[in-house]
Amino acid sequence: MNQSEFFDLADRVFDLEASENEVSNFESAVESHPDWMEVYVDQKSAMHGALGLAPIEASLGFDSGVVALWRADRIRRSAGYWAPTAFAAVAAAVGILALIQVLTAPVSPAAFGKPRAEARLENQSPVDFPSLREPLAK
Q1: What is the pTM of this model?
Q2: Which ranges of 15-138 would DSSP assign to H, the alpha helix?
Q3: Which residues make Cβ contacts (< 8 Å) with residue 18, sequence separation at least 6?
């Protein structure tokens, strides 16, 4: 890759039009030729100055910062980054569904589980009911 190809690639990367392959090529080019990044920033600041825009000022670690941001963004877009969160969400959903099942299960006494059970009166003492022939107040 020569310097002009690097500048074209940098334009696509910073305009968010680059593919993942082009981004990785850009990262490797910045690591192998950090001076190209400085020249690119200088040209952009000169162009912005000619257009009356505020100049771009890059710090000393600008290129390594850009590469670190691109790597972090690539990691955030990977499935491995989100896998623990997705697993926790599925586990929480299963737990909530199990809790709902337990709480909404009908409660039945033990006697209903035995169909041959019989109700018996423990105290079988006779009850004396007054008759119409006897006076109520004795």
Answers
A1: 0.35
A2: 20-32, 34-50, 62-76, 79-104
A3: 9, 12, 26
